[in-house]
Amino acid sequence: MEYKKADEVVAQPVSPIGQYFSSSVLSISILAVLESEVPVDDLPAISLLKDIFLPINPRFSSIMVADKNGVKHWKSVEVNLKNHVHVPNFPVGMSQQFYDKCLQDYLSKLSAEEMPQSQPLWEVHIVKYPTSNAAGSVIFKLHHALGDGFSLMGALLSCLQRADDPSRPLTFPSVRMRPDINGSSIFKNVPKFFNTVFNTASDFCWSMIKSSLIEDDKTPIRSGSAAAGWLPITITTMTFPLHQISQIKDNLGATLNDVITGTIFLGTRLYMQAVNQESTNLHSTAVVLLNTRMLKSISSVKEMVKPDSKAPWGNHFAFLHVSVPQLTNAEIQNPLKFIRKAQEIIQSKRSSFGAYLTAKLLETVKKFRGHETAAKFIHGSLNNSSIAITNMMGPVEKMTLANHAIKGLYFMVVGSPQSLVVTIVSYMGNLRVSLGAEEGFIDSPKLKSCIENAFEMILNAASATPSNANFLNGHNTSSGP
Questions:
Q1: Rounded to two decimals, what is the model's pTM?
Q2: What is the pLDDT of residues 452-475, one digit of tens each?
Q3: What are the pLDDT digits (tens) for 114-139?
């Protein structure tokens, strides 16, 4: 079956970041996995794609073409849906654990494959075998040039409905800012202003240096391979209850992001220590992706595609370089000290506009040197760091896909030139953390175990410690994810 489109050039050019992520040095895609409670053998994939998915955005029916100046535009084409839907065949009658490994290997294979440029840059893979997490799985692979996680999450959720009442929209966790309990007098704003100026200048300069001159040490989480980003990865996931994260957050007066990022940092340091004691305190940097739309929740696709939308479709994010704190013996005994140290680093980054200045610099580089030069700058920033971290807010309610209840979801960014990528998404009161680890280099089960152990250490310490919500001396903190 074909879904035909007129052979014409879509008005919008490929976004700058879209061009960077489909360049000679970068080809980045997103894998989104929906875990079904029931078998997906009868899933009406073709009709869903034709009637719901393709109409969401013209880019899903378009390919990228370059003009004489090398600038890429979206050109609409005929879409043969059968070329985009894949159903793998595994041996029948095997155990769930066997199919766990089959799914993991299949995702690893997908992570290293480039999508053909002759057709629209998305695929759907239907895995009709039961794993320990699901009766069946549906995998969406979408090229990052189509949009960022915010856009693609909105598109994906447009294909799903609320399980309890399909007529009602899905809802998402909101982000609320706590009031400054100590007030905001002019005398307090003056030092904050100078701190912001200093942090902005420092972060901007560090970003420039990091992209071209200084790289992280080679450690158990960074191979330093020139082929990173083109190699297969192993994807493993873990789940943390949001109410337990909130318990830690309230005890520390921190944010959910502070707690989960601190947990990932602590687990990573524990893993480095377990693999190679000498690597524990070597220099490691995380690149955190920030949504620059500055919104509190996921917007509908209808809102995104409006010309004057405050949440426009596309790639709208910036990079934030965050040093992974070194781990001391005292912090192993009291992991809350480590979380506070990580929080202080993150807070200083939040008070900086360095990421936005870097985004403006990229626009200038693209204007005068072309998108390939800008792409090399981004590649250097990622390749010289150790970890990439990105997160998304998912629905509060259970979803269904064509009456197939979805019990879990996770996603992974593939093609990033690092040995370790961490993604985070919330869904139905849980936080799903996924690790994309360079295959054959990082011991994924051991790293997962170290991060889960770090969370237990932090939770136990927080449960045994009186609440200390004011340890930041009155600074604003977000109570949202």
A1: 0.85
A2: 999 999 999 998 876 554 433 433
A3: 999 999 999 999 999 999 999 999 99
